[in-house]
Write a structure and sequence with these properties.
It contains four helices and five strands, in the order E-H-E-E-H-E-H-E-H. With about 140 residues, it is an alpha/beta fold. It has a five-stranded parallel sheet with strand order 2-1-4-3-5. Helix 1 packs parallel to helix 4 and helix 2 crosses helix 4. The radius of gyration is 14 Å and the shape is globular.
Length: about 140
Amino acid sequence: MRVDIAASGRLKEPWWEAACAEYEKRLSRFCRLSVIETPENRPLRVTPGALTVALCVEGDMLSSEDFAEKLGRWANTGVSSLCFLIGGSDGLPEELKAAAGFKLSLSRMTWPHHMARAMLLEQVYRAFTILEGGKYHK
């Protein structure tokens, strides 16, 4: 499976870079991962043909197990490419949220977009380990 993360803004602090790099490395055994950073005031680049998942507060809140099940269902029904959308400080534009195949909320709380990226990478990794039957998620 191909997993793209289209993110508004770039990581500036070394601790966010290190956290994201760790999960990017771990994910390399499960998927082809690409992070596409776009300057904050420019439109995100959505992967053509991918199922888009908009991260937004009004999206569905899922447990890690439910997220893994959804990821597995997508893979089993022929979805070969996912594109997660992470907005900047103003969130995602309404038109991107409306066009998304799924809306996902990491929490009803507001998180900085660089923290959301690290959290998303960790949850995608956790989902793949759950689907594999691994022990990481426990």
